[in-house]
C-alpha cells in the first residue's frame, strides 16, 4: 500500500514538471514564424514563406488550448498578422506596373510597408520568445 502511494505521489510530481502540449505547440509556432520571417525578409513575395505564415495562423486559431498560453499567443498572432501584411505588400510590389510617377510612388510605399511590418513582426517575436523562455529570434 505504501509503495503504491509513493509511486502515485512520484507520478504526480513528475507529471507536474512535464511541459504542457500547448506550450510545446506554441514554441513550435514561434520557430515556424521565425523561419517564415527570415524567408520573407529575403523575398517578400515568396509563396513558401507566405504559406508557412498561413499555416501558423491557422494553427494559432484552430488548435484547442493555444489561446490560453498568454501572453505568447497574442504576440504570435500579432507576428502572423504582420507577416500576412508583408505577403500582401510583397505580392503588390511584385506586380509589373507602368513606369509612371504614381506607380513608382506606390512601389516605394509597399517596400517601406514591408520593412515596417518585418520590424513589427520581429518585435512581437522577441516578446513571444521572452514569454516562452527563449532567446531573441531576430
Q: Could you characterize what this model shows?
A:
The protein has 138 residues and is an all-alpha fold. It has one domain. Helix content is 78%, strand content 0%. It has 5 helices and no strands. Helix 2 (21-42) runs parallel beside helix 4. The radius of gyration is 20 Å and the shape is elongated. The model is unreliable at 3-15 (pLDDT under 50).
Q: What is the domain total for the residues?
A: 1
Determine the strand fraction and express it as a percent band. under 5%
Instruction: Please bin the fraction of helical residues.
Output: over 70%
Q: How does the major sheet shape up?
A: none
Average pLDDT, all residues? 88
What's the β-strand tally? 0
Which class of secondary structure composition applies to the elements?
mainly alpha
Distance between the termini: 54 Å
Principal-axes shape call? elongated
The tally of helices reads 5
What's the SSE blueprint?
Blueprint: H1 2-17, H2 21-42, H3 47-62, H4 72-94, H5 101-131
Helix pairs in contact: 2-3, 2-4, 2-5, 3-4, 4-5
